[in-house]
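Batch 3, record 17
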Amino acid sequence: MRVLLAASEVYPFVKTGGLADVAGHLPSALVGEGIDIRIVVPGYRQVLERAPDRETIAELRLPGLSATIRVLATRLQARIVVYIIDTPELYDRPGGPYIDALGDEWIDNAHRFYVFSRSVIEIAQARADPSWFPDVVHCNDWHTGLIPALLHGERDRPATVFTIHNLAYQGRFPHAVFQELGLPTELWHPECLEFYGNLNFMKAGLVFADRLTTVSPTYAREILEPQFGYGLDGVLKTRQGQLVGILNGIDNEVWNPESDPWIDKNYAIGTLDDKVVNKLAVQREFKLAEDPERPLVAVIGRLADQKGIDLIVDAIPEMVNDLEVNLVILGSGGRECEQALREVHAVYSDKVGLMLGFNEPLAHRMEAGADLFLMPSRFEPCGLNQMYSQRYGTVPVVHAVGGLVDTVVDVSDSSLEDRTATGFVFHNPRVSDMLRRVDAAIDLYRNLPFVWREVMINGMCRVFSWQRSAVDYCILYQDALENRRP
Ligand code: ADP
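Prediction for the assembled complex:
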């Protein structure tokens, strides 16, 4: 089976979050399952810089579009073809894939992802590269939502799968944008792309794809409810029969404490005492006192409301003073969250280390060095860091939502007894509830170190692999192919 995976981010070419990890790692696992997979990504500046050995496959001239679109090809891990949609005036810019250097959304985002979607369709219909055409196009998040909608009108089209990585980002634009893009007028309908008077890219994918997935079984249930559905729960309910949750995996080679090149001292279950070397190194790096005993809590992530950064900011005084822990925080994103963290850091700079920015090697060192990993997300489609943490023997404390429910087993008498306990889970996104679970974790860490070690080891023994996800995606692709909608 041939599959074309379309994504706006692909690790290691460009990454702002978990979507890039999925698009960069799932394909290799799919190759292992016998899938002939290719990837397509916009030609952002970062992508062009990281793909020096690219060749030009085609030049596209699309009706109604003045831009010249070149389709380039490079390879991921030397074996997977990656098509790059090269339109310099749309993608080759400083700043991020979605926002400029000041943090504002690119004003032409609708146009950028419309052109990307049209180009993907040319590849899908073998009009760009006649030597290859897919049986299934696997679209990811709103940037690719128009693909299933526009492919729907094509003859002999491939089947389409649309994966929701985060329903909070939908790509909503005024009606005028719908007209400017010249989208087929019959699509302007509440049962198609219209969403309360606006154009909604995500909705296009949800309505038209043959099969829908999201990145954890719990999130697949949650998004059918208004609390997590961001206005699209009604649309999703109508497609409930075609929606499944497939848990993301992690790359067990990139995230492996035994061989991680970025950490100070490699370790494994049999050499867990060596983990403390990494703790001391992280304390040094964040200019905190080197102290092997004092619990060290790590936080890594996008600084968005979703991640519950406000809860962390509010909890810091009690955590550092009463629970006597230190924190190390790495993140980038929202200006307000950054400012709040800067302020609390200024007060507690001897107990709290803060690095603002995107720093992958440091993320590895923090996973290796911390004792606990705090993730109080208000919603979490899957989440990756809680899985990395378990692999590194760093015990996660998480809010019971989405993928966090599916990947962390709360410490309790019974889960300790059957050796499934891997972390601490709280059920209300409130500072007091979170602190209660952090307190329980610190209590175990200080007073029952043997039990603490068991929890670390339980986590390190869990297998979160892409191979398991790939098997589920193969079944889904087959299903989409056999049940293509007329
Ligand atoms: P989301 O996709 O919502 O941002 P995920 O947990 O699914 O959250 O994925 C986030 C990914 O990005 C993880 O691999 C995480 O380690 C990484 N990450 C997030 N922020 C940073 C940062 N500031 N520096 C390094 N890595 C980061």
